[in-house]
């Protein structure tokens, strides 16, 4: 049954990517405070953005667990986890899937970072990334925010290509950190 749902979700998201709707740009601007949240991770543990103060945060939104693009993106982040840790960054993934779906996704792909369940879709709305795929289901757009140690948006990547995105984010993080040092 999980495979059927995953196949159906993949088909819907693939069609949706061919005809993305126009978005009102209601995402927080670079330099603005990152919207606060309190969400559960794949293990049911609660997390807040405030807990990350003093750290660089890579907050990435993705449409759906166990779909091709989302799996590619998560696995590339997984494969670069040591470089992100060396850069002093915490990775937090967010989708509108539930905790159980995240638990299965994280286990199947050995994800060493936190993925958060935004099943109410409130956080995706606050970050301006919620959209209706083909008018059928609401999912998070594939966007990434780099949040600085003071809790401000330092960079926003919109509608990203999952292939190679991890390396791009890592390079930008290093640039932002160097600029912050002056």
Give the number of helices. 6
Number of strands: 9
Mean pLDDT across residues: 88
CATH class: Alpha Beta
In spatial order, strands of the major sheet run 2-1-5-4-3-8-9
Low-confidence stretches: 2-24
Task: Label this structure with key terms.
182 residues; alpha+beta; Glutaredoxin; 7-stranded mixed beta sheet; two-stranded antiparallel sheet; 6 helices; 23% strand
List the helices and strands and how they pair.
Elements (H helix, E strand, L loop, with lengths): L1 H17 L19 E4 L4 E3 L7 E6 L6 H12 L1 H6 L2 E7 L3 H10 L5 E4 L4 H5 L3 E4 L3 E4 L3 E4 L5 E5 L7 H17 L1
Describe this structure in words.
It is a single chain. With 182 residues, the protein is α+β, with helices and mostly antiparallel strands. The protein has one domain (2-181): Glutaredoxin (3-Layer(aba) Sandwich), CATH 3.40.30.10. The protein is built from six helices and nine strands, in the order H-E-E-E-H-H-E-H-E-H-E-E-E-E-H. It has helices at 2-18, 68-79, 81-86, 99-108, 122-126, 165-181, and strands spanning 38-41, 46-48, 56-61, 89-95, 114-117, 130-133, 137-140, 144-147, 153-157. The strands form two sheets. The protein has a seven-stranded mixed beta sheet with strand order 2-1-5-4-3-8-9. Strands 6-7 form a two-stranded antiparallel sheet. The protein is globular. The relative contact order is 0.22. Residues 2-24 have low confidence and may be disordered.
Short description:
The chain is α+β, with helices and mostly antiparallel strands and 182 residues long.
